[in-house]
Design brief:
Distance between the termini: 53 Å
Low-confidence stretches: none
Number of strands: 15
Helix content: 25-40%
Shape: globular
Strand order of the largest sheet: 14-13-12-11-7-10-9-8-15
Order of helices and strands: EHEEHEHEHEHEHHEEEEEEEHHE
Oligomer: single chain
Radius of gyration: 20 Å
Length: about 350
Amino acid sequence: MAGTDTPQRPILIAGLGSIGRRHLRNLVALGGPPPLLYRTGKGQAGDLDQDVPTIYDLGAALAQHPQAVVVSNPTALHVETALAAAKAGCHLLLEKPISHTRDGVDALRGAVEARGLTVLVGFQFRLHPTLAQVQTWLLDGAIGRLVSAQVHWGEYLPGWHPAEDHRLGYSARADLGGGVIHTLSHPLDYLRMLLGNIEGGGEVIRVSAMTAQQGGLGIEVEDVACLTLGLANGAMAQVYLDYVQRPPSHTLRIVGSAGRIDWDNATATARLYRATTGSWTEALPTDGFERNDLFREEMRHFLACLDGSESPRCTLEDGVRALDIALAAYESAAAGRMIVLA
């Protein structure tokens, strides 16, 4: 068939930290387009499993006409990199959070819209199989009217990359967009996914928060945060985050007028209690499910978005909304008052 020998345009991976290397491995494992790497050389690239062309200037990398760019550099550089890529006509897999400020976000939105580009934001929990079951239960009204939700997520920051000084990573530095609210912002997105469209739910419209440095980690950003999110229907969600907890814990509980849903990231298990029957229903992942399965599925989904067979499960607008909630939390903590979102 004509055209089958046409070389595929590469996918540029911008940033070779741990998440960039993970995206690279999954792209190669899935047999995707050839990878091309852009890095500044300021960070640690780590060991790569294969030789991949590497360019140390973003303009020169974009001049290779990649079809898409995976933006996986530090948070503070996301919008700058994504905007340059969008102006070059590249589709985007934009890591979360999309930024640590609103600066440049509207320009990025405009560049994407003007060129009709595809953007997938890297909130990979949207692809979690048992969170999908939680969403189905909620949409089916299994626990009645929504009352509240509680997320508890704590992890020990120095244990993430033991061979590295945790104080130097982007998660610990204000100038690179760190802090526990930004770095562990997944619940700000998956709560919207789960609660935003169900009967009696709705968008987050109010945010209150407190933050502190209580872990003795020697970092310049908050290591613990407590957020209360007010939903449009009057229900509320509480989000607790920390960089300190050992052993780690990441759980979700959703309370309704007719039951309860529990989810545990450690076991990837979801449980539904129906008050009408007094019984539990359990949803388990497939045998052998592991953390990288989420990232592999995210890359598969992104490639499917590029060929037009799927639509992004987490759009740029979803990323902007999560950022607005995070920024409102910081504003609330600084001002000592509730922030009302537009």
